[in-house]
Write a structure and sequence with these properties.
Elements (H helix, E strand, L loop, with lengths): L6 H11 L6 H14 L11 E9 L5 E7 L16 E3 H6 L8 H10 L13 H6 L4 E5 L2 H7 L4 H9 L3 E4 L6 H13 L5 E4 L3 E6 L2 H24 L18 H13 L5 E5 L2 H8 L3 H4 L10 H4 L4 E2 L7 H23 L15 E4 L3 E6 L2 H24 L7 H8 L2 H6 L12 E5 L4 H12 L3 E6 L2 H8 L5 E4 L5 H15 L4 E4 L14 H29 L3 E6 L12 H21 L4 E8 L9 H10 L4 H5 L10 H13 L7 E4 L10
Parallel strand pairs: 5-6, 9-10, 12-13, 12-15, 13-14, 15-16, 16-17, 17-18
Antiparallel strand pairs: 1-2, 1-4, 2-3, 4-7, 6-7, 8-11, 10-11
Helix pairs in contact: 1-2, 6-9, 6-15, 9-15, 10-14, 10-21, 18-25, 20-21, 21-22
The structure holds zinc ion.
Zinc ion binds next to loops.
Length: 675
Amino acid sequence: MKSRWSDADAAALVAELAPRGVPEALALRVYTSRLLGAEPTLVRHGGGNTSVKTTTRDLLGREVEVICVKGSGYDLDTMQPRGLPAMRLAPLLELRAVERLSDEAMVVAQRTALIDPTSPTPSVETLLHAWIPEVVVDHTHAEAVLALTDQPDGEAICRDLWGERMTITPYVMPGFHLAHVAADAYQADPAAWGMILLKHGIFTWGPDARTAYERMIQMVDLAERRIGRAWASGSGVFAASNAVGAPSPKLADVAPVLRGALAARRPGVLDFRTSDAILDYLAGQDLGRYANVGPVTPDHVIRTKPRPLILDPADLSPAAMNAAVEAYADAYRAYFERFNATAEPKKTALDPWPRVALVPGLGLFGVGATAGEAAVAADLAETTVSVVTDAEAVGRYESLLEGELFEMEYWSLEQAKLGAARAKPMAGRVVAITGGAGAIGAATAAAFAAEGAEVAVLDLDAADAERVAAPLRGLGLACDVADPASVAAAFQAIVGHYGGLDVLVSNAGAAWSGRIGEVDDAALRASFELNFFAHQSVAKAAVAIFRAQENGGCLLFNVSKQALNPGPDFGPYGLPKAATLHLMRQYALDYGAEGIRSNAVNADRVRSGLLTDALIAERSAARGVGEAVYMAGNLLGREVTADDVAQAFVALAKAEKTTAAVLTVDGGNLAAAVR
Ligand code: ZN
């Protein structure tokens, strides 16, 4: 590992923050926090924390000694001064005289010391930072350090490697007790550059930001070299154990079945990862041992649970996967009961479903209630693969005791990190929208995303699709719905990205017109290709995924008023739309028994790619009325918008007992009503 320090960058950030009243010491603290965060093998997802002791002025202009510590919810790589809330140092130092303190009392004491009470809550490791009498303190969960400390003889390995440079402390639960242990260890050896916390991570410190940072890099570099020597001596035998002729399952087959087994119990999505390193890890003969040992550093446990779900590649049938998921949950419940029996106070059980699934021969899946959560679980699983692989090269991977894991997983302060936000109604559901970059498609994608769904926006042009998907944190894909190969590729990409699909909004369409007795056959056939066969093609692809998931599913078709109430010279558009209305009913009939629903929306007179401003001007002129009057020409006398149509799709997606229905969104028009 190399230092990323740059005098020019450091000076630039000091200059940038100075006009905002940020003193140099804090600006440099922000700078090296970002440098640490830029190294994914040092910290990930809110892991690690940093601090600086400095002074500020109170309202009366008096100088006050403060400590600024990373606030929870902030990541080091994007650190801002606000993410390092300042606390009065004196009351925090006084707490050292207290021997025992509840977690809640500790948090209150930290918040009471805040200079600005609206600041984020400072890290649970605040007191440790405060009680180390050094100006700057850095803490990371460096992978290389973990690979050396997560060993039965981790302490001996560390002493041998770092010698007098680093103090070594045994594993203790983070929080008040650890702060005491660390402060005592510092006092016993104040010349050390930092401290190794066995099975947890590393601290370094110094008189300024650069010194503490460079020491972190140097110490981690030593650990990386030590691991390099272990590999060079041939102790890493992982890759060699790759079994020849082992089954190699396909992502497109495995993902929907796994997602179905998981989402039927807890709605959510998958995030798939694979690489040579992951495949080697999964192919190891001892996978069942080292993968079940526990997390590489304690705070991973709240996002990954103590163990992954390991699937047998020889049998990935729905029955086998459902059984594996249930067996996982049984084991988790037993673990909870075992440790809750002696816990004081009693804990409330968390859901028993896995957050990481391993499929030898294929890769790993992060599992989450949202795409974001799944990505975090997958990232931490990748970190685990990397640390455990190195640890097994050095010796034998070891983690916390099961009771220590339970204590961490059910620690109230860790649970608080997960947030109390209530899940939105469509959270964990995946919705694909064709014609997603058009007016109705984009409004529909936004409406589903607002309900918490993950959205895949499909349109002819990838850039258009991405433009709509990006602000919704969705997936933008090029898809020509009239081309079966393009449809197959797009639906495979959805499965690869989210693990499956729950709702299809088949919305893409275009208008053809012509007097029916005189219209060109080619135009009629072209309209049937897009306005009928393309609906069938995407519905078929979606139903194949729904069936693999064995967890229901929902088809939604954008039909048209034309399907029920033909307009003059509009036959080439209305005929395939009428066939699509029938198609909707056929799906409802043929797949209802499998829980797959099929419904349609009939919208009329909505500003879109089909009803352009030019067409509106032409039609309103032909009827001798103004444009506003033309657009509001319905029973309610109000213009229908793309968002009104989007809300109808969302309502049908949520209407769990409704299938084979048509919902009309036209402001009221009896001639076009279903009868
Ligand atoms: Zn930590």
